[in-house]
Amino acid sequence: MTNKAQTVRARSKSRVCAQRWFRQAWPPEESNMQRSMLLLFAAVMMLGVGTMTTAHAGTPVALQCGNVLDPAQASLQGEVTLLIRNGSIERVERGKVSPEGYAPVDLGRATCLPGLITLYSHLTVTRDRELASHFTSSAAKTLIALRNAQTLLRAGFTTIGTAGEDDRYYGVVDLRNAINAGLFEGPRLFVAQHGLTATGGHRDSPELDQTVKSGPDTAREMVRRERKAGADWTKVFITGGALRAGENPDIVYFTDQEIHAFAEESHRLGMRIFTHAHSDAGAIAASNAGYDFILHGALITDKAISVMIKNGTWLVTNMYATEFVAADAKGLDDARRRELQHLVESNGRVVESAYRAGVKMAFGGDPIFPDEKAQRELASKEFAALVRHGVSERDAVAMATINAATVLGLEREIGSLEAGKLADVVAVPGDPLKDITVLERVKFVMKGGDIMRNAF
């Protein structure tokens, strides 16, 4: 078992982690109000108060599934029972069985799948303007991240990758640690706290302290800083954004030496690295430097696609978030609306072309968290967007299960329903191979053998 796999399986119950969190998360330069928020959050953590209820925790469970859709199998399986013990799948039995000592859970009207994985989210983001105006400290943003992470867990996402947060400090790293320590219920988190950018680049802001001034040595130092703070992977803004006025997604803001330095240092430290890149220039530069995946790629052409195939670089899509922003483009002039619509159309063409060409693809649906109801609805709409653009239902499911697990290097731990793997299981009221939108209606969620939700 790899060190990473051992880390994933470990779940310490000690509250020393909470005390350490408090010491690290209370920097002396915080204002009194911010420090009060941190004190409140730390106090809640040290009380061990969870905000979700688990069932059958520590008890062997027999999940009696009407059907099972597992990317490790060639076809939809009929009635299957998953026997769960100590957080893992002990055995997979044909038919409906209920061995002595196992608590039966009847999912006979449901299709069971591996827990879903998204490699792209911004957990501290909220489009609720009133909420955003009142919650601006690092501690408050971390509370928003907890709410959003738990919302995604209820929607079936048992493992989540974060892709940079609007937070100068490392609140989501601490949230990950709190969840791992058992202080809160939440998904398994892999964190890129900041998106490293160049002076004048996308998200260059003195408030975030994520700007790399210049040179490969500075690039390496920034990677080391993120790793020291506990980040799991490195995100780099190689190009400009496609949705921000005045930015050009065709411009590469870093030199080749800097781009390679980010990748070399990340891999040397055992971290995955990915880039925000919309166009050929950024995608090709990152792929040739050995980046693990390209995020977005909404404007790339066959030129970048061929380079990514040659280098084995993954593409992580996020189509529906762009569609949502374009449909909700209030207050924008006609020119900006046309730009957004062009991006949506180009993104669809890229997915179709990359899929047909055989680019390795994984799931990155980015719910923008406008409100509680929409969070539940938006979290899984990426599946239908993928299918609309030529991805088969089976491959869309694989992108959010075994493919995403492979990107994380955890394909032996999660991503399929096999004996010996962690018991991450979701269930939906229908067959996703016939109607992919049933993944927007997850009713049962188990993470690591603990039942987080059961609405059947």
Give the class-level CATH name of the largest domain: Alpha Beta
Name the CATH architecture of the largest domain. Alpha-Beta Barrel
* Sequence of strands across the biggest β-sheet: 3-2-1-4-15-16-17
Average pLDDT level: 85
CATH topology of the largest domain: TIM Barrel
Helix content: 25-40%
Structural class: alpha/beta
Task: Label the overall shape.
Answer: globular
| Tally of helical runs | 16
Number of strands: 17
- The CATH H-level homologous superfamily of the largest domain: Metal-dependent hydrolases
> Low-confidence parts lasting 5 or more residues at pLDDT below 50?
11-51
Strand proportion, as a percent range, falls in 15-25%
Rg from alpha-carbon coordinates:
21 Å
Whole-number total of structural domains: 2
Q: N- to C-terminal separation?
A: 35 Å
SSE map:
Blueprint: H1 3-9, H2 16-25, H3 32-47, E1 61-68, E2 80-85, E3 88-94, E4 103-114, E5 116-118, H4 129-134, H5 138-154, E6 157-161, H6 171-180, E7 188-190, E8 195-198, E9 211-212, H7 216-228, E10 233-237, H8 256-268, E11 272-277, H9 280-288, E12 293-296, H10 302-311, E13 314-316, H11 319-327, H12 334-357, E14 361-362, H13 372-378, H14 381-388, H15 393-399, H16 402-408, E15 425-428, E16 444-447, E17 450-454
Parallel strand pairs: 1-4, 5-6, 6-7, 8-9, 8-10, 10-11, 11-12, 12-13, 13-14
Antiparallel strand pairs: 1-2, 2-3, 4-15, 15-16, 16-17
